[in-house]
């Protein structure tokens, strides 16, 4: 695959949107740091508001203003998640942030929502490359990461799944359980699997 065997580090390729090997010591180290921060955040008392604010700002790339992310939460790296002001994320959210996940302002997220930036080649020979003499495992897993952007004033329903490369326009509502595979315009309601537009929010 183009870009897979260039001289760039796997982290550099990951954040540049190029194919990269996920079995990588640097990536594992960064994920380990995130996992320890997630464990500490999820263990905080619900009434430890100062601790939660500090923990969230340590875990995420940026938190522009007020934000509440209810535990438990899961992230891959954390540092690629960017929240605008006045964002609420209900319990059980999953952020696979191999690429940037960016929220605008006043974004509300229902319980169990997932934001998935990582994907793989559909060709199995490209997806899993055997490396018997590899430094970590006997195989490499090829990933591709594509950013997710959620516009201002969006509402993401419970258990919705937002797939790699999706942009959701400002003011749009995603129904509970929807699978969003393609970008959506502003101020619409989308439901189903795959998600489809059913009407404007202004009707």
Question: How would you describe this structure in keywords?
Answer:
single chain, 203 residues, alpha/beta, UDP N-Acetylglucosamine Acyltransferase, domain 1, 7-stranded mixed β-sheet, 5-stranded parallel β-sheet, 21 strands
Give the overall pLDDT as a whole number: 94
Point out poorly predicted stretches.
Answer: none
Give the CATH H-level superfamily.
Answer: Hexapeptide repeat proteins
Number of DSSP strand runs: 21
Q: Helix share of residues? A: 10-25%
Under the CATH scheme, which architecture would be assigned? Answer: 3 Solenoid
What is the secondary structure topology, with strand pairs?
Blueprint: H1 10-16, E1 20-21, H2 25-42, H3 49-59, E2 62-63, E3 67-69, E4 74-75, E5 81-83, E6 87-89, E7 94-96, E8 101-103, E9 108-109, E10 114-116, E11 118-119, H4 124-127, E12 128-130, E13 139-145, E14 148-150, E15 155-156, E16 161-162, E17 167-168, E18 173-174, E19 179-180, E20 188-191, E21 196-200
Parallel strand pairs: 2-5, 3-6, 4-7, 5-8, 6-9, 7-10, 8-14, 9-15, 10-16, 14-17, 15-18, 16-19, 18-20
Antiparallel strand pairs: 1-13, 11-13, 12-13, 20-21
Structure report:
The chain is an alpha/beta fold and 203 residues long. The chain has a single domain, classed as UDP N-Acetylglucosamine Acyltransferase, domain 1. Helices cover 20% and strands 30% of the residues. It has 4 helices and 21 strands. The chain has a 7-stranded mixed beta sheet. Strand 20 (188-191) and strand 21 form a beta hairpin. The termini are far apart. The mean pLDDT is 94.
């Amino acid at each position: 695959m183009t870009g897979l065997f260039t001289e760039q580090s796997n982290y550099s390729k990951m954040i540049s949107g190029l194919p990269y090997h996920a079995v990588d010591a640097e990536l594992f180290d960064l994920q380990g740091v995130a996992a320890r921060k997630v464990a500490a955040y999820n263990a905080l008392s619900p009434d430890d508001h100062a601790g939660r604010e500090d923990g969230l700002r340590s875990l995420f790339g940026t938190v522009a203003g007020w934000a509440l992310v209810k535990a438990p939460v899961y992230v891959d790296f954390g540092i690629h998640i960017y929240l605008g002001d006045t964002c609420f994320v209900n319990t059980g959210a999953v952020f696979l942030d191999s690429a940037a996940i960016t929220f605008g302002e006043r974004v509300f997220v229902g319980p169990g929502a997932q934001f998935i930036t990582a994907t793989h080649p559909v060709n199995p020979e490209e997806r899993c490359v055997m490396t018997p003499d590899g430094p970590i495992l006997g195989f490499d897993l090829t990933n591709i990461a594509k950013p997710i952007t959620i516009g201002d004033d969006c509402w993401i329903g419970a258990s919705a799944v937002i797939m790699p490369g999706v942009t959701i326009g400002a003011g749009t509502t995603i129904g509970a359980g929807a699978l969003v595979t393609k970008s959506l315009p502003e101020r619409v309601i989308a439901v189903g699997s795959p998600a489809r537009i059913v009407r404007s929010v202004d009707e």
